[in-house]
Design a protein that fits this description.
The complex is a heterodimer. Chain A has helices at 12-22, 39-46, 62-65, 69-84, 95-100, 104-109, 129-145, 179-192, 207-211, 224-238, 250-265, 279-284, 302-315, 331-340, 351-361, 370-379, 404-416, 422-430, 479-487, 490-506, 514-524, and strands at 2-4, 26-31, 55-57, 88-93, 117-119, 166-170, 196-201, 218-221, 242-243, 295-300, 319-325, 345-347, 365-368, 382-385, 476-477, 511-512. By secondary structure, chain A is an alpha/beta fold. Chain A is globular. By secondary structure, chain B is α/β, with parallel strands linked by helices. Chain B has 3 domains: 39-160, Rossmann fold, CATH 3.40.50.1980; 187-296, Nitrogenase molybdenum iron protein domain (Rossmann fold, 3-Layer(aba) Sandwich), CATH 3.40.50; 298-434, Rossmann fold. Chain B is built from 19 helices and 15 strands. Chain B has helices spanning 4-7, 20-24, 43-49, 61-70, 88-92, 94-111, 124-128, 133-144, 164-173, 196-209, 242-250, 263-277, 282-307, 321-332, 350-355, 368-378, 387-395, 405-408, 417-433; strands spanning 9-11, 27-31, 53-59, 81-85, 117-122, 149-154, 187-191, 214-217, 232-236, 254-255, 311-314, 335-341, 361-366, 382-385, 400-402. In chain B, helix 12 (263-277) packs antiparallel against helix 13 (282-307). Classes of the chains: A alpha/beta, B alpha/beta. At the A-B interface, strand 1, helix 2, helix 3, helix 4 and helix 5 of A face helix 4, strand 4, helix 5, helix 6 and helix 7 of B.
């Protein structure tokens, strides 16, 4: 049993709903008690969808449990088929129905419906939303494209000369973080490279589209959390290579282009003049020098977190001080990225742990999910959202991709704007005694509501404790030194405190004086 | 189990209704997909109402996700609810599940020393695996007494619909209420979670009427539980409190039947039920309530122009549908088409049913697909529905009102009658204002 106050991911059947809702002509019959229908509002409210998700729930009640819940399920499948006339059906159980073991797959098969029925087994007590989405997509692809598979061992026929290379884009779902715009951006990019996109799935695909996935020359795995399992199966079955670079940021987009070109054109550049991003020039622009070494904490799904770490380091000149994910399935990728940036990886789905780490690291910018946005807001730290779980704000009216060259422009804007502009930072540094700057001055654009960094909102959580690392009880601050520390601008104060304490500890000093403070400053530099 | 088609049949009343009108009104009972929240949702307002209580759902990741999604917000302040998520190890052996629960409660209480009352809230999975939360509550109560009292109730979707979670919570609390002395004075208990400001307004009215002493249940603090006994008279502030009312009656308290305090008329009749029990002179009653009635009438009149003659359709949700339909029909001259309710308690709603226009069609339970067909065919001017249905209906050109707002907005009493009317006027005014 795990004590959970808030969760990054829903149960696996919500992942299945993200696949079903993304597609056309598909219907999902879910054996579930009343109440589980709450999941509809995720799609109609957060994503503002104008249609209900294509999901029928059996909504069994206690009085049904003694009776025939299996028959209830069969009736629901039959009626859903007659009402919605889907081209294929998904059937499965939510957490409660999993316990009553009615075998939705077997029951649905017994109805002999004239459309493919794909049964789902999603272990609710072990797995979570993204896994559920990946498993559902894999089962659908396997169930619908499987009949078209060549005999094992059949070599893939070469693309006829003069035929444009083609690919599928795999992974975008309903309730995805900017999936709508990423697909548009990457489709346009592939088109400029001379590559045709045959099928985008699951977003906007019909069951018949999944059946012809094998026709394309290769697959673009845009969102590995959702599409990795299915793409690996397609690779084994249809000998379709996978393009696995996730094109977030300028460098990754260029790598993505190189990977596509290597596959299609033997590495020859196919595009004389692909549109590029304004990010490199903006990052080199003289006003951006204040971005140098900004301490950034990154948390999200593994794909977005790892990509953000690269953009932050290589394209904006930030310093990654923390990197984490709630995607345990991709923990290995995140761990190796963390090693690259020499930070300790944080693999957790407990937001209190994430909050504790942010408090401890005192970053100047947080790149995270909506939960980290709230944490950062409480702590008075700038923040930009880079990953699901999604919020209504993550479905902007304007075009706002994360991927490709336009996506890189969006990243520059959304990550840099929460930071204090260079001159404001200098003025606070120079005139610390100004009453308006004060000891707890905040960047003006973050408003005045934020609480001081030293009082994290999570109290009573033993592990969090105080924001000031007080793990060294034998070290004391002299009053004068403590006052001087108060004059250090808030955005570096935590670092100065930590460095000074470490300096004192290393030097065997029990009392930090004004001298110690400035000795430490000289030792570490800014 | 019946197929939904077979279950669609107008059934005569079951005879427990009080008024003759109520008895004869036909009702459409349906069994099909129910597009409603489960009782866990009540935690969203209960955990704020009772300030020293904590709600620990013993359930699945779905339960945790439901509450955070239904609340529609991320967490700004650490909430007084959480979920103990059952995992596969707990399913392997129930003894272990109990140990695990004890460990989780231990950790929770050490983190939150301010908590005086802990509700273990049962869910669909905990009910299906028959995890005995009442025994767990006894065991934990014993262990953590006297600092913390541990209670349990079920908010599971297989047993409760949306507001029934509050009913189950309050019913579980009734046995803890201290006993009123046998020869005690008559006292009034107002039952059902209300906004703090509404409680204060009602208390002033009861004081002016000379009705009292008055207690509110649930209380704002778990450590100040009201006493109950044979001299207690209680008014229900909400229509969904069947089990709580029964539990109070078992303690000897007596229910004062009345319409619910929504709108000027409902509030007057509700106050009058208490005034009559206390033998308040009619003249005094008129004098005390005159100002509030007049203000409510004036506030409501402002919206009559927008709302009069408009046709309203209710999807079942909170059990507030019938009292609100009555208010909209009688004070705003609206026309209720279908009034759906998840469950109809004929006795508690007898006075309401007597006031509801004959033309309003009642439905109980739900088959959401069929109900959507009826709604789209009727094309009402305003449709009251849950969050999952609102945008799809808007996209069909219908104007909707989220029913959950009726629980999250202070709507009871004279001073809120205008606010209640405004909730229905707003979507229509907005639609008129937009030129795109």
């Amino acid at each position: 049993m795990q004590l959970t106050v808030w969760t990054y991911e829903g149960p696996p059947h919500v992942g299945a709903m993200r696949i079903a809702t993304a597609m056309e002509g598909l219907h999902y019959v879910l054996h579930a008690p009343q109440g589980d229908t709450y999941a509809d509002l995720l799609f109609t409210m957060i994503e503002r969808r104008d249609r209900r998700p294509p999901v029928t729930y059996t909504t069994f009640q206690a009085r049904d449990l003694g009776g025939d819940t299996a028959n209830l399920f069969k009736t629901a499948v039959q009626e859903a088929y007659e009402r919605f006339k889907p081209e294929a059906l998904l059937v499965g159980a939510s957490c409660t129905a999993e316990l009553i073991q009615d075998d939705p797959g077997g029951l649905a098969k017994a109805l002999n419906l004239p459309v493919p029925v794909v049964p789902l087994e999603l272990p609710s007590y072990q797995r979570k939303e993204n896994w559920g989405a990946a498993e559902t997509f894999y089962r659908l692809v396997r169930g619908l494209a499987g009949p078209q598979a060549p005999a094992p061992g059949t070599p893939r026929r070469d693309r006829p000369d003069g035929q444009k290379p083609s690919c599928n884009i795999l992974g975008p779902t309903a309730l995805g973080f900017r999936h709508r715009d990423d697909v548009q951006e990457i489709t346009r990019l592939l088109d400029s490279l001379g590559v045709a996109v045959k099928v985008v799935a699951p977003l906007g695909a019909r069951p018949a589209d999944l059946a012809r996935l094998g026709e394309a020359d290769f697959n673009v795995v845009l969102y590995p959390e959702v599409a990795d399992t299915a793409a690996r199966w397609l690779e084994r079955t249809f000998k379709q290579p996978r393009v696995t670079t996730v094109p977030i940021g300028v460098g990754a987009t260029e790598d993505f282009i190189a990977e596509v070109e290597a596959l299609c054109f033997g590495g020859e550049p196919s595009h004389p003049d692909t549109a590029s991003s304004r990010l490199p020039w903006h990052a080199r622009s003289i006003d951006s020098t204040y971005l140098n070494g900004k301490r950034v904490f990154i948390f999200g799904d593994a794909t977005h977190a790892v990509a953000a770490a690269r953009v932050a380091t290589e394209e904006l000149g930030f310093k990654v001080v923390g990197l984490g994910t709630y995607s345990r399935e991709f923990a290995r990728d995140l761990r190796s990225a963390a090693e690259r940036y020499e930070v300790e990886p944080l693999i957790t789905d407990d937001y209190l742990e994430v909050e504790a780490r942010i408090v401890e690291l005192q970053p100047e910018l947080v790149l995270g999910t909506q939960m980290e946005r709230h944490i950062a807001k409480r702590l008075g730290i700038g923040c930009a959202v880079i990953s699901a779980p999604v919020h209504v704000q993550d479905f902007p009216a304007r075009y706002s991709p994360q991927m490709g060259f336009e996506g890189a422009n969006v990243l520059f804007d959304t990550w840099v704007h929460p930071l204090m502009m260079g001159l404001e930072e200098h003025l606070i540094g120079m005139f610390r005694e100004d009453a308006e700057f004060g000891a707890d001055a905040r960047p003006s654009h973050l408003g005045h509501a934020a609480e001081p960094v030293a009082t994290p909102a999570v109290n009573g959580h033993g592990e969090v404790g105080n924001a000031v690392p007080a793990n060294d009880s034998e070290i004391r601050w002299a009053d004068e030194a403590e006052r001087e520390l108060g004059k250090v601008p808030f955005f570096v104060r935590g670092k100065v405190r930590r460095n000074t304490e470490r300096f004192a500890r290393d030097g065997g000093k029990a009392l930090i004086t004004l001298e110690t403070l400035y000795d430490a400053k000289a030792h570490y530099g800014r | 189990m019946n197929s939904p088609a077979a279950a669609v049949s107008p059934v005569a009343a079951d005879g427990c209704g009080v008024g003759a009108d109520a008895d004869e009104r036909p009702i459409l009972r349906e069994r099909g997909q129910r597009e409603v929240f489960c009782g866990l949702t009540g935690i969203i307002w209960l955990h704020r109402k009772i300030q020293d209580a904590f709600f620990l759902v013993v359930g699945s990741r779905t339960c945790a996700h439901l509450i955070q999604s239904a609340a529609g917000v991320m967490i700004f302040a650490e909430p007084r609810f959480a979920t103990a998520i059952i995992d596969e190890r707990d399913l392997a052996g129930l003894a272990d599940a109990n140990d695990e629960l004890d460990r989780v409660v231990e950790r929770l209480l050490s983190r939150r020393p301010d908590i005086r009352m802990l509700f273990l809230v049962g869910s669909c999975p905990s009910e299906v695996i028959k995890l005995d939360l009442s025994r767990a509550a006894q065991r934990l109560s014993h262990k953590h007494a006297p600092a913390v009292r541990v209670l349990n109730y079920s908010g599971s979707g297989i047993e409760t619909t949306f507001t029934q979670g509050e009913d189950a919570c309050l019913a579980s609390l009734v046995p803890c209420l201290p006993a009123m002395p046998e020869d005690g004075k008559a006292s009034l208990l107002v039952v059902g979670a209300l906004a703090d400001v509404v409680e204060d307004q009602l208390r002033r009215l009861f004081d002016d009427l000379g009705v009292g002493p008055v207690d509110f249940f649930p209380p704002r603090m778990a450590k100040t539980l009201p006493a109950v006994g044979p001299t207690t008279r209680f008014l229900l502030a909400q229509p969904f409190l069947a089990d709580t009312a029964r539990a109070l009656e078992e303690r000897g308290a007596r229910h004062l039947p009345a319409p619910f305090p929504l709108g000027a008329e409902g509030t007057t009749a509700w106050l009058e039920a208490a005034a009559n029990a206390w033998g308040v002179e009619p003249e005094r009653f008129r004098r005390v309530t005159a100002a509030g009635r007049e203000r409510a009438d004036r506030a409501v009149a402002r919206y009559r122009e927008v709302l009069a003659g408009r046709r309203v359709f209710f999807f079942p949700d909170s059990q507030l549908e019938i009292p609100i339909a009555r208010f909209l029909a009688r004070e705003l001259a609206m026309t209720p088409l279908e009034v759906g309710t998840p469950y109809l308690h004929r006795q508690h709603l007898a006075a309401e049913l007597a006031l509801l226009p004959e033309t309003a069609k009642l439905s109980e339970g739900q088959d959401v697909e069929r109900q959507l067909d009826r709604c789209l065919a009727a094309r009402p001017d305003i449709t009251v529905c849950g969050l999952g249905l609102a945008n799809p209906l808007e996209a069909e050109g219908l104007t909707t009102k989220w029913s959950i707002e009726l629980l999250f907005t202070p709507v009871h009493g004279y001073e809120q009658a205008g606010d209640l009317a405004e909730l229905f006027a707003r979507p229509l005014q907005r639609r008129q204002a937009l030129a795109v």
